Amino acid sequence: MLSKTEILAPAGNMDAVRAAVNGHADAVYLGGSLFSARAFAGNFDEKELLETIDYCHTFDVKVYMAVNTLLKNDEIKRLPDYLEPFYREGVDGIIVQDMGVAGAISGCFPDLPLHGSTQLSVSSEYGAAFLKSIGMTRFVPSRELSLDEIRSIKSKIDIEVETFVHGAMCYCYSGRCLMSSYAGGRSGNRGRCAQPCRKRYQLEDQRAYMLSLKDMCMLSDIGRLIDAGIDSFKIEGRMKKPEYVAATSYVYSELRDEYLSGCKNLSRQAAKYENMLRDIYNRGGFCSGYYFTGNGRQMMADDRPNHTGVKVGKVSEIQKPYINIKLSTDVHPGDIIEIRGRQGDVELTCGAEGSAGKSVRLKGKLFQNIAVGSQVYRTRNNALLNDIQKNIIERDRKVQLKADVRAKIGEKMSLSLSLGSMKVYAEGSECIAALNKPVTESQIIEKIRKTGGTQFEITDVTSDIDEGIFAQISAINNLRRQSLEDMKDLLINCKKRNPRDARNTEDIYRNVSERKKWSDRHPGITVLASTAEHVNIIKNYKWVSNVIVDYNIKQYGGELKEQGFKVFIALPEVLRQRKLKTYSDMTAAINEFDGVMIRNMDELGYITENGYSGPVIADAGLYVYNDIACDFYREHTEDVSFVASQELTLDEIKNLSVEPALKIYGHQKVMVTANCISSNYKHGCADKKMDGTGDVLRLTDDIGNVFYVRNYCSDCYNVIYNGVPTSLLDEGDELNDIMDDCYIEFTIENADMVKNIMDHIGKNILGQELPDGRDTVKNPVKDYTRGHYYKGID
C-alpha cells in the first residue's frame, strides 16, 4: 500500500504532464494512441509516451496507462505488441475495463500491475474481492458509492482504492452507459462518448439539462477521505487544459500534506482553493458527489451544461454603446465575462481593471439581450491563469539531492550524490598541491551546487577537502555534470523492466475445437419478464423454454417451474455495499431457480465467493467483446453462457468462440443511474413505491429522440431505456436460423404489447397455434432499430 494518499492527475498531452509534475502530483494517468477511453484527448504516440514515462520517473511520479476500452478480436491480438515498449520502459500500471484485456495483459506481462477502471462499476466488497482474486492491485469503485460504503469495502478487502475527488461526473454508472452509442453511434465503451448527459431533455412540461451533474470538489472533506483509507485521489480531466491540471494537482497535494502534517482545521484554506478552482472550471458550481448524499436535484447542473464561471456583478446602467457593471469581485484586463441575457448570453472581453464594490465600463453588443440587473459572470480569469502559468507550470519541480565531495592531494576528486537509498559515485582528475592560487572548499562546493537547467537541486553538501589544493574549475563542472547524468539514468533505469520477447495473444488463447452454443445449454427460446403482468402472459406460450424473472418478481419463479419452464433469476442491475444486508437471503433465492443471470462484476464476485456452481447467464452488460473475455468468464464460472453484446455486429458475434443468445426484441438499457428523474423533476422520492412496476417516464431530447425511465426504488436506481426497441422480428426466414439461440427481453412494455409480440412470434415465425385460436396476427412493432447488428460501431 502507499505510504500516503496519492494525488493522481489527468494528462491529455505533454503540457498537461508537465503541469501535473510541477503541481506536485504523485502520479499521472494518460492514454496512448490506441484503446483509451478518451479518444478525443490529445493522447500520446509511442515516442511521446516513452519520454513521458522517463520524465515522470525522474521525479518519482508514477505513470498509469489507460487501456480501458472494450476490444474486439482483431484488436486484442495487437495489444501485446502495442504495450511491449511501455512495459519495458517501466509504466507503473494499466487501467482496464475489458476482462479480455485483463487476461491478455496478465498472460503476456504477469508482473505488470492492473487497475480496475471505474468502467467496471464495482460497487461492493464482492466485486473488490473478485478483482483482487484475479490479480488486480487497485480498483476505482463506482462514483455513486458513499464514503461509508468505500470505508466498509476498504476495511474488508486488502486492495488499493482510488476514488475521484474532483471534476466532471457521469450521470450513469460508468461502463453501463450506451446512450451515446444508441443516440449518436459513438460508444463510450470505445472512448468516443458524445456526452448525451449534457443535452437538454423534456419531461412533460419541464425542459432542462436533466442528466447533467455538477462537477465534484472534495477539498473541504479531504481529511475525511484520508481517514477512510482511500489510497489515491483521482482528478478527472484528461481533456482539460494544463492550467486546470496544474491548479488541481497543486491544491489537493497542498491540503493533503497539511492534513497529514497534523493540521486538522483546513476549512479556510479549502474555501480559498475551492474559489480558485471554481474560477478555472465548474459546472453549475461544485458538489460533493455521492460521498455524503444518495442523489438529489442539488447535485444537478440543469440550467447550463458547461463552464458556469463565477459571478462578478450585475449590469447597473446601459448607455449605448457602453454598459456599466457594478462589481462584486475584482476583474482584470483580458478576463472573459458573460452577461446572462434574456435571450442568450453576451460574451465580452474585459479591457480594464476593476475592484469589488466599484463599477467597470465596457463596450457592449447584442443590447436586445441585456437589461439593467442582468447577472454578469466571468468564464476566464486571465490574471489567475497567468499566475498559475508563472508560479506552478513554469516553476520546474526539482529533485533534491545530497552531495558528498572529496578532494585530497594525490587522489582523484570524487563526488557522491544520493536520494534516499539511491546513490551514484563518480571520480574526476587527480588533485595536486597548488603552486600559487589554491581552490578553496567554498569554491568547490559552490560549483557542485550549480545544477543549472537540470531537474536537480543539491540541498545538502558534505565535504572532505584538503587546503592548498589545485583543481581545474572545468574538471569540477564535468564531475558534477557526469554525476547528475548518472543520477538521472539511475532514476529512470531503476523502473525499467528486463527485455523479453513480445508474446502474442495466441499464447493465451485457448484452443476451442468446437464453438460453444447457447442452445447446447439452454435449448429453445428465452424470455425475460420484468413484471407480474409479463409473467402472466408469457406462461401461456409453451414454445418458450426458458424464462428469466427479475429479482423484484422472484416470487413468481415457482409457479413458472411448476408449469414446466426452466426458470432463471436475474439479479439486480446494481449490487451496492449498503444494500448487502437486504440481500442476505440471495444465495437461498438463487438456489430455488434453475440458474442465475448476473449483470455486473459484483454479482460475479458474489456467486464465486458463495460457491454457486449452477448455470450462469452473463447479461450483455458484462461485455463479451472478444474470445479472451469469453475464456475469462468460463474460467470463473463452471457453466456460463452469454447474452450477446449490443455493440457488436452480427458478423462480429458469429466470430466469437462462443455462440451467445441473440436479442431479437427488447428496449435497450442505455443508462443505469443513482440519481432519480422522478425524484428530481416530478413528485419527489417515490418512497419505494415504484420497484420496477410504476409509471414509465418519457424523456425527449432536442432532436426528438425518446427515452423511457423506470424506477427501482428498493435499490434506489433508475434504468433509462432507448425509446424504440431493438428488433429483428420482421426478418422472416432469416430468423429461423437463430430462433434456438434467441433472447426476448420485456422491460417497459405493457401487457397488450407483450401479448401481441408473443402472438406474432408464435404464429408468424414459429407457426404455432395462438392461445386464443385466432388465425392471423400482425407484427405489432412498428418503430424499431436494428441497434448495431449491421452498422456496428468504430
From TrEMBL:
Domain Peptidase U32 collagenase positions: 376-490
PROSITE patterns assigned to the protein according to its UniProt record, in alphabetical order: PEPTIDASE_U32
InterPro entries linked to this entry: Pept_U32_collagenase, Peptidase_U32, RNA/ubiquinone_mod_enzymes
Protein name, UniProt field: U32 family peptidase
